[in-house]
Predict the structure.
Amino acid sequence: MVSEMDLLRGAFEADPRAFARPPAAPGAPPPRRVEEIMTTEVRTARPASDAAALAEMMITTGIKSVPVLDGPVLAGIVSRRDLLAVLARDDARVRDDVIAVLDEQGAGGRWAVTVHDGSVELRGEADEAARAVADVLARTVPGVSRVTVLEPTPDQGEGRKDAPHSRRRARIWPTGVGHDRR
């Protein structure tokens, strides 16, 4: 059986008992209250925490979920399943979401958007500021692992048509996992 941890790490754990709790004393009654079984050494994250660093911490410590605190208030919980959902998004959905976020901010129509294995390629005619904005917007989309902004090819028409890539002048900024990419 392959667990979520195996998929996140890409390798099997040497000993799955490494994070097991010690067994209860023989004849001891089962726990009746949460405080008797809860984890007291809790790791937390903030809403703006780097998702890749959080995933790495969860892998190395064996933690399955991490509370997210916004100041003293519980804002949510990130689980292994949440991280996998981001990684498992198919390219068509990522592409649609990149186009939607570009359209939402008024930067959509000028970019041809292609996605392969989470790597987004934006190709279009734009000044440096517009290119930087499009790059940042694309990085906010879950499932984006990398963004490349390219000049249009001579045979690329208006709008979002996918064109063969003949000339490449690119600025590439690798990203981490999750929403907070900078």
